[in-house]
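Database export, one record per block. Field names are fixed; values are copied verbatim from the stored entry.
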Amino acid sequence: MRAETLSSLRSSLDRLDRMSPFAGEASERVLPLGIPAIDALLPLQGLPFGGVTELQVRGSSGTATSFALCACRAAQQSGAASPWCAFIDPAATLYAPGVARVGVDLDHLLVVRPELEAVGRAALRIVEANLASVLVIDLTGTTQPINEHIWERNVRRLALAAKSTATSILLLTRSEQFQTLPLPAFMRLEFTRRSTESFELRVGKERCGRISSARSFPCSIFDPAAARVASLAAPAMAASSLTAVRRVS
């Protein structure tokens, strides 16, 4: 076998190892957001692949949505296992021009808008298909009551399914939704909108117990230009049509 063929095969195998959610080094199993100040706050310097992260929101959820979209942007720009990201939006609040302004490639974003009771099934199908590097599930916009016991089971099923994939699952919730039965997520981030200009973020739960105090950030930190400037100042791994499925049964 020719030397260049062996070299190409070795490179391909190395790339598959890096994509694997079971890779040995933690740095190979996380998705940095490409925003150094926020990545530095997170215990793994990013969001874990093969696990569920809960983003628990207090106050306006618009900036929290920007956080989730930045995860999609980072996955698309960093050469993750798949350029596709998925966003489950049962309240139909996602606005395509706003998504594009954050820097997300709309041609590789699948937006699914099922009824609330079908959200868990839709999410599980996407994870099992292993088609998305990032799966965002947004429960913040729904006005319907959420069954805590059902969602505890949903999160456990998603976590088990994600272990065999290179998918990072980000679940957006409101702080009042799961007060009596906290979700069994790998990590819980607590997001509080303090003003029109700033928000606070803290790690409230992490599998190894690495929590943090709240830190304040300007909302402008999610702007693509600001992220590029910040990445140049402190190098970090940086990471049209809006496809929508109205109902998933």
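Remark 1: The CA atoms of residues 50 and 162 lie 5 Å apart.
Remark 2: The two ends are 50 Å apart (CA to CA).
End of record.
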